[in-house]
Every structure is written in C-alpha cells, then in structure tokens.
Design brief:
CATH class of one domain: Alpha Beta
CATH topology of one domain: Rossmann fold
Shape: globular
Strand order of the largest sheet: 6-9-10-3-11-12
Helix content: 25-40%
Largest sheet: 6 strands, mixed
Distance between the termini: 91 Å
Bound molecules: adenosine-5'-diphosphate, magnesium ion
Structural class: alpha/beta
CATH architecture of one domain: 3-Layer(aba) Sandwich
Order of helices and strands: HEEEHEEHEEHHHEHEHEHEEHH
Strand content: 15-25%
Number of helices: 11
Length: 295
Amino acid sequence: MLLIGFAAPAIAQASASAERVYEIIDAPVEIQNRPQAAPFDKCGGRVTFEDVWFRYPGATEPTLKGISFETQPKELIAILGTTGSGKSTVINLLQRFYDVTQGSVRIDGRDVRDFELESLRSHIGIVFQETTLFSGTLRENIAYAKPNASLEEVIAVAKAAYIHEFIESLPKGYDTIVGERGVGLSGGQKQRIAIARTLLTDYHILILDDSTSAVDAETADRIQASLDKIMRDRTCNAFVIAQRISTIQNADRILLIDDGKLAAQGTHEELMRTSSLYGAILESQVNQKQPAIVA
Ligand SMILES: Nc1ncnc2c1ncn2[C@@H]1O[C@H](COP(=O)(O)OP(=O)(O)O)[C@@H](O)[C@H]1O
Ligand SMILES: [Mg+2]
C-alpha cells in the first residue's frame, strides 16, 4: 500500500506526459482553448472570413490568400473550385482543425479561436468524401449519433438522402448488416448513408464536403435538390462543396475559389453574367455531359 501510494504521483505524471506526447503527434498544430473561450451554444448564422491567409505547417506557399466573405443567416453557401484550390481548407479553418496564419474567421462576430473547441466542433456537422461505416445494421449506421432515433426518423433522413429505396429493396431492409460480414455497398451508397446520418443530428452549421462525389451526376443533383431545403431549414448556415455546377446551382450564393483566392461570388445567374472563370467551368461541364450529339 505504502509503496503504491509513493509511486502513484510518479505514475500519474508519467501518464500525463505520455498523453501530451500523443496530443502532439495527433495534432499537426496545437489547437487549444483560450482562457475566456465560450461555448458555441447558439448560432445566428453569420460566418465571416476576413482577409484570411493560411499556410499549412511545413508548406512554403500559402494555401489561402486573402479570402474574405460573409454569410447571411440561413444561407445555403456553395464552394466551387478545382481539386486543390483550397475548398476543404476553408472548412478546416471554420472548425479549427487549423488556425489562420493571418486574418480572422468569425461566427456571429466572435473569433472561432474564442469558442470552446469541443463545443464548436460538436455543433458543426461535416460529411466528408470518404465515409466509414461500422459493422452493424443500416439503421444503426444511420442512427449512429442518435441511437434512440425512431424508425420513422431514420426513414425520413434516408429518403432525403435518396437511399431509402435502395434500403427497402434489400431483403432485410433497415436491419441489413453492413461491414465486414455484411452486404457490400458502393462508394455512392456509403456517401448517402453518411448524409442521412448527419441529417439526423441538429447541427448549427452543416457542411457537405464533396460528399456526393462518388454518386453519378444526376443522382447527385437530385440528392442536393432534396437537401437544399432541409439544409436551409435545419441549420443557421449550410455549406456544400462540390465540383459540379449542376449540383450547386440553386445555392443562395456560390463562392468560386481559384488557387486559394476568392475569384468571384454570387448566385448562379450572377456568376454566369460576371465571371469568365465560372463561364468556362460551366461550359466544360456542359460539354462533358453531352458528348456526341453532333452528326
Ligand atoms: N494537411 C496538409 N498539409 C499540407 N498541405 C495541404 C494539406 N491539406 C491540403 N494541402 C494542400 O492545400 C491545397 C488545397 O487543398 P484542399 O483545401 O484540400 O483543396 P480542395 O478541397 O479544393 O481540393 C492543396 O495544394 C493541398 O495539397
Ligand atoms: Mg477538398
């Protein structure tokens, strides 16, 4: 007893420093709560990027170069740009996976660095391009963050994500096991389950980051059309990142990112009139869709 009593503080200390080592390995940069950090308990719907510059640790060039925009409450914002233009990085800064190098990111006027990290992240829902499902039923996978959700609730979000019909077509429906020993799902089906899962939780801010990329273009457009209203209704701000203009053309505003800069912003109609880059992207995508009409 005495020995253990003696050793205890040393063990506690050792494990505390071990924890610190893990934190440093896990986190590329140390993101911590500031002393006066406040919870992100209500959301007015105003996200502000003010002259945001960001360089990844170890990188020589900045990835974001003076990005400025401000959202209005309930706006559905689309972020459009080529691969590597910096779209996901914008989102990384909002959730504080990283902190800005220069400038500021604010929600309702408050710098995101002045929010409690846990609270900030738990109220921002993100659907990523890559999705992991766990071994369990489809219902459990959808209700992952809300295990007590009723079947009706699960079906409602599955319908919104255009995966209900597929699930119903399986012999065991929502009780179908997925994962290692269960039914195999395509990338697009997994993405739709991830969207349904995210819709089941009430987030202040909801972000779809290329989350219909594995779905064919027409289905992606249909999914997004059904999500447009839900995202506006349920959140104070929603962001959709996509490669295809057809998917996001009904957004309230489109932010066009080009090489880390905000090249243009506006509605689809406004950008068609004012942005030659947007016009060029649109043209290339329309041409892709209609390859061989010429006689
Ligand atoms: N963790 C990272 N470390 C260093 N560079 C990164 C990291 N993540 C992304 N980048 C770089 O930042 C640029 C923008 O990436 P990203 O925001 O993911 O683009 P997008 O989402 O538009 O495809 C790319 O050049 C990418 O290689
Ligand atoms: Mg990305």
